[in-house]
Amino acid sequence: MESSVLKIENFAASFGEHTILKDINLSFSRNTLTAIMGPSGCGKTTLIRCINRMHELVPNAKVSGKILLDNEDIYNTDPIIVRRQIGMVFQRPNPFPTMSIYDNVIAGYNLNGIKLRKEEMDQTVEESLRKAALWEEVKDALHRKGSFLSGGQQQRLCIARALAMHPEVLLLDEPTSALDPKSTAHIEELVSQLKDGVTIIQVTHNIAQAARVSDFTAFIYLGELVESGPTARMFTGPKDKRTEEYLTGKFG
Amino acid sequence: MNHTIADTAVHASRAKITMQYKWGISEALFRRLLYFAGLILVVLLAAIFFSLAIASFPALRQFGFSFLIGKTWDPVRGEFGAFAFLVGTLMSSFMALLISTVFSLPVSIFLGEYFRHGNVSTFMKSVIELLAGIPSVIYGFWGLFLLVPLVRALETKLGVAPQGVGIFTSSLVLAVMIIPYASSIGTEVISLVPSDLKEAALSLGATRFEVIRKIVLPYAYSGIFAGILLALGRALGETMAVTMVIGNSNFLPKSIFSPGNTMASIIANEFTEATGSLYLASLIELALVLFIVTTIINISGKLIIRKMSTGK
Amino acid sequence: MGKIETSVHRRIWIDKFFKGLIILLSLGSIVPMLLILFLITKNGISVVNWEFLSQLPKPVGEIGGGISNAILGTLWLILLSFIFSVPLGIFAGIFLSEYRAGRLAYLTSLSIEILQGIPSIVIGIIAYVWVVLPMGSFSALSGGVALGIMMLPVIVMATAETLKLIPDSLREASLALGVSYPRTIMKVILPAGLSGILSGILLGIARVTGETAPLLFTAFGSPFMNQNILKPINSLPLTIFNYATSPYPEWHTLAWGASFVLITFVLGLNLITKLVTKKWKVQF
To answer: Which subunits count as partners of chain A given 3+ CB pairs below 8 Å?
Structure first.
């Protein structure tokens, strides 16, 4: 029995005069991994930044339409609460440089002034780092600052940090594009295991990666949602010509 | 949907996170605080200007423009003409500028061209930084005990009244003090001259000296000039070192070896003994003039620098 | 052929001569600094001992005495100027780094640049008009106000410059966790810029410690030990000025000692600033 945890309805977004997204209608089922694909500049990053209301931080940003999280319009909710329910991992790893690994993971609690008991904190840190496949590598160095970590490890730390908040939805914005192939493979694998607890939406440039790990795929081109559906179907029998051309590498 | 125990825990955790929110200062209030901080600074500057203007009003009203050209400064008789101090200020500052440029320009070329990296460069840069960090009262003290006897000996040799203190001595001290200001901007613009320009000249057979003279210096000219302007602004406002070696005379200086006073040094000398509102207002008017003049010079210098970085 | 050779010879000779001249004149500018440090150390170091640092100045004619009230006064003035300038300065610096366009930002920037160039004696007069006149007496408080105004631009610029260098990604990481804007600034951005802000504070302190002119008619100086900020207070530079310009040789000696203490403190602070910046700097 699948249900939609996130629904995007008639959604559009722009910066001042430039329209980035037009009339997007998309829904995401609980505990699935959806890949959002498309050529550079098509608006896929903007789309997920609208989902956690980061897009509006830019001056002159405008949106219209609805995005419903568990049937509540996130644009009618305080953005801070939205962002606590929807986590994001960015293209370039951005752990907090002044904090230790431990503090980085529970930063979402500490910075928000949410008090946890020590056992709760320890448990959350370990759980999140395990889910991010980083626990074994850092368990003896939890109170050191994360600057000695490699790029791939830093990104897994960011994933752990997002997971520690127990988000309903996790947004990944091309999380491996700044990493080496080995780290990329590592993270790909852990992401596919994460969806048991959280719904994942991943923007990716890597068509092969999308084919491998995602349950659903959405193809965005020039700000429009061209096509979406189960990954297997999209790749074997795309309905739109543009989808087919993109998937076979004719442009992108 | 099956709820497992783990689901419930997660759910409870989520509730905790999302609900514990209404704490702390709101964004709107914080932004207003930031705005206010910026505003205070602007208001502060305006308040400084207006306070000076208002406090010097009695003198402004009494003397008008003749304040600046009046040659007599006689507190007893209530006559306040600041011309002697204008002359003293200009003489000491411009001489200091001249003397310091003889050293600060070579330092700029030294650091910007010949020794841009390495230990020698670091050493020289540290020395220059040190020069800027020495408090002015110590410069004055040093000037008083080292330079004054030297100048006195010089004056004896030249057949001039051997006072030791005077405008010349003050310009010597000032010159040393402003070397860092003049040379720091010069160093930067000289080191930023594009190397392809220099290499083009060198490949045509020019010597290093010729490249510096014909390519580097013309290119860096406005930056060097800006540095000199900023040094001038510094020299005009310098008080303690000047007060200690300038001889403190209120008469119009007859030569560079005469004792004199600058606008800053007369304020330092007489402010605490000034009685009567006209006396005080006159001294404050001097401060107002200093404020306006140094502001104009500093802003001009900064404008030149800004134009250089956006123009090129 | 010969003519070209000699002219090339000449140009090479000029080139070498020029370089030598530059080096000579550059080294020449080191000479005053070396002289100052040498003189102060030579004349001052023998004066500094525990009595010197812990005793009050003695009246003229009596041997000995010390500068304890000047040292304490300087510390008081540093504290007061810190209180007046650091909180406001940091917030104004945050303002400038958050609002880079806009009229108020431009005006604030301009005001800071102008404030920085105001001669210190003019600031002293302002503090006189604003604090001494209404209070009816000289005080450490008015001296603190004057020095605070002088420290402000340093703090604002250090904060603004440091924070501007912090990449947006840090702010986004915090906001994406649902952290509010004020907390993001205060708990993530500001700590990341701590080393730059701290070095600005230390450099500001180093600068105002050596200031004399603004204290001439605010703090005014005093031969006594004073812990009351509403009364006149002594400071190291004031002591040096008074003693150095006095006609008594005993006092000149004390001035050398005080100069030694002052220079050690100021240069020491500069050194500490460099170490702090290096050690605590956050790399991105």
So the answer is: B, C
